[in-house]
Amino acid sequence: MKSHNRSFIKGILFLSALFILGGCENNSGMVDRTYQLVWQDEFDTDGAIDDSKWAFDLGAGGWGNSELQTYTNDARNIIVADGSLQITAINTGGSYTSSRIKTQGIFDQAYGRFEARIKLPWGPGIWPAFWMLGADIETNPWPQCGEIDIMEYRGQQPNIIHGSVHGPGYSGGAAKTKSFGYENSRFDVDFHVFAVEWGEDYIQYFVDDVLYQVIEPDDLTGEWVFDGPFFMILNLAVGGNYVGFPTSGTPFPQTMYVDYVRVYREVE
After folding, report:
1. Burial 113-140 (b: 16+ CB within 10 A, else e)
2. SS (H, E, C) the chain
3. What single DSSP character describes residue 245?
């Protein structure tokens, strides 16, 4: 069953706007903010993705990371069913197919809370991600456009996720990053909410109700480029420089389940 509760930010759903009430400092030292829901996909209608909200990235070529998969829009690789978006990586006999979708050209936003509730796959060489790129990437190429990785995950480490930013002077292996993990649990056995709260001079990273990283301009070794609109991406890669490559013990198919994606804007 789809969960509409938010354990960290408390609020009420009224018509099409969700307001999360706050505005003061709580006992953890964090500032509670007031947010309004401005964009969402609850994945409640079975079938193809909603093309008024998402577009596909298609094809092969490694995507700059020596990845092995070819991205398709085939229903075997991507479908909405049983209340979730399901992105599936398939081994087709030595080659791999999967899917990657984005809101580029459809929806982007500067600042706010961006969150998704996801159950992850697992196995060596499996690389799911929920992330964002600067909307000006076509005229301001990566890494100058900026990249915010809300959640990345190496399938061979099913108890650990990673949150990062990339920009000029701190991209690729030099990205500003931090990990979050569990000793006695795994991200492939249940859904978790992965989120960032982003403002003019901070990006805060959350897993469920836990704040595990705060990035500010002075933390970076280069220019702060997180001051314009970004679009969102969901994908499931196979292989690549970040995760290594599948082994004979990597099970296929592997599916990334996304219960919802929601975006909020801070209300002053």
Report:
1. bbbbbbbbbbbbbbbbbbbbbbbbbeee
2. CCCCCCCCCCEEEECCEEEECCCCECCCCCECCCEEEEEEECCCCCECCCCCCCEECCECCHHHCCCCEEECCCCCCEEEECCEEEEEEEECCCCEEECEEECCCCCCECCEEEEEEEECCCCCCEEEEEEEEECCCCCCCCCCCCEEEEEECCCCCCCEEEEEEECCCCCHHHCEEEEEECCCCCCCCCCEEEEEEEECCEEEEEECCEEEEEECHHHCCCCCCCCCCEEEEEEEEECCCCCCCCCCCCCCCEEEEEEEEEEEEECC
3. -
Residue 141 lies in a domain: yes
From 119, 165, 129, select the one nearest 238 (Cα to Cα).
Answer: 129
Residues forming beta bridges with residue 79, ordered by sequence position:
86
Query: Which residues form the domain of 235?
Result: 41-263
Task: Quote the CA–CA distance of 130 and 153 in Å, as a whole number.
Answer: 10
Q: What six digits make up the tokens of 10?
A: 């408390």
- For residue 29, being part of any structural domain is answered with no
Tell me how many domains the chain contains.
Answer: 1
Helix (H) or strand (E) holding 198: strand 192-199
Residue 116 lies in a domain: yes
CA 75 to chain centre: 21
Q: What is the pLDDT of residues 177-230, one digit of tens each?
A: 999 999 999 999 999 999 999 999 999 999 998 999 999 999 999 999 999 999
| 8, pLDDT greater than 90 | no
- Asked if residue 230 belongs to a domain, the reply is yes
List active site positions: 147, 152
Q: What is the CATH number of the domain that holds 203?
A: 2.60.120.200
